[in-house]
Amino acid sequence: MGLFSKILAGGLGWAVGGPVGAIIGVVAASLLGGGARRLEQTRYDTVNQRTAAQNDFKVAMLVLMAAVMKADGSVVKSELNVVKSYLLKHYGEDEALDALRMLRELLKQDIDYRAVAGQVRMNVTYSARLQLLHVLFSIAMSDGQMPEREMAVVKAIADAMGVYDSDFRSIMAMFSVSRNEDWAYEVLEIKKEATDDEVKKAYRRMAMKYHPDKLAGMGEDIKQQSTEKFRKINEAYEHIKSVRGMK
User: Fold this and answer.
1) 164: which DSSP letter?
2) Most buried among 32, 56, 88, 113, by the most CB within 10 A?
3) How far is residue 82's CA from residue 72's CA, in Å, rounded to a whole number?
């Protein structure tokens, strides 16, 4: 059973309704038949809420992935490769292929990404929203730069998800290719003029913000993504320590 079939068999919660449900209903009709009626029958159907929450998040993530990939009018190979790698790493070959079939259908849809992101904001923890934004950045920056249209879509999604500007800039700095002298400070959400003590406090604060415990109830894929983000936070901290001669 592929990923999309598993999602429908396993049940959905909040994703059944609203803009996400409307989009997935069309995809369900195309891939499985039955459309919205088939989708409605999956709502918490003898399923625990944790499984439903994980399924909801997977569906919303794929919808927003499609929105970012479509942002500049065409899907480029580098973006598709990033998505394939992500899905293969976290879901395995069979489920990844099924998810890609779902993604291809999503790419045909008109996606109101602001409405979808708003629905995510209402139903997903802030920590999980940051992880989702991290995934979207990895797609948009797949070729080492972010076109203006994709930047506009990612920023609009972040705003609609209620992500603070400081967190948006921090994640953007993690993907910076140029690595200007301020990038490490932007990752830690502090100014270059910060004292050594302020740098240490910022590092501890960021470590707490992205601790896996903040993602209780989410799938292992999101928890693993948190580990990657924490690696970049450590990299920024070690860079500042090296430049300043901090111990």
Assistant:
1) -
2) 56
3) 17
Q: Are residues 125 and 187 in the same domain?
A: no
Smallest Cα–Cα separation from 130: which of 173, 82, 162?
A: 162
What is the sign, positive or negative, of the torsion defined by CA atoms of 88, 94, 95, 96? positive
Pairwise CA distance, residues 127 & 207, whole Å: 12
From CA 132, how far away is CA 153, in angstroms rounded?
14
Residues 3 and 97 in one domain: yes
DSSP state of 212: G
Q: What is the pTM of this model?
A: 0.77
Tell me which residue has tokens 């910022």: 202
Task: State pLDDT tens for residues 102-138.
Answer: 888 889 888 889 999 999 999 888 988 998 999 999 8
Q: Which residue has the tokens 């459309």?
A: 35
Paired tokens of 240: 């500042």
Token pair listed for 52: 């439903």
pLDDT-flagged residues of the chain (< 50): 1, 10, 34-47
* Domain extent at residue 32: 1-162
